[in-house]
Design goal:
Layout: H1 14-52, H2 67-78, H3 80-94
Helix pairs in contact: 2-3
Length: 95
């Protein structure tokens, strides 16, 4: 940490002191803004990291909620002859 030299400001003119004060005030404001931005960024990154390690929910499909199965059932009702032929081919392959 830097040491402040107060002695050098003892004999300085008022306008120079005022300018110095204004410059330090601006620097402090800028640093406070950066600190706030860094705090917001750290919070955001912390949340992203925490969410990255949470298990993601997975969708499991059953016969009851499978859209593909429902569509195949509808097709089988509309085309019973073809559906029966396909069932027989599949059963032959599993024997």
């Amino acid at each position: 940490m830097a040491t402040i030299d107060y002695v050098k400001s003892e004999n300085t003119q008022k306008n120079v002191l005022t300018n110095l004060y204004n410059n330090v005030e601006k620097k402090q404001k800028k640093l406070l803004e950066q600190t706030k931005e860094n705090a917001e960024l750290l919070e955001y990154l912390s949340d992203k990291i925490a969410n990255a390690f949470k298990p993601q929910s997975q969708n499991f499909y059953t016969i009851d909620n499978s859209l593909a199965f429902k569509k195949s059932q509808e097709w089988a009702k509309k085309n019973p002859q073809e559906a029966q032929e396909i069932r027989e081919k599949i059963l032959k392959e599993f024997k």
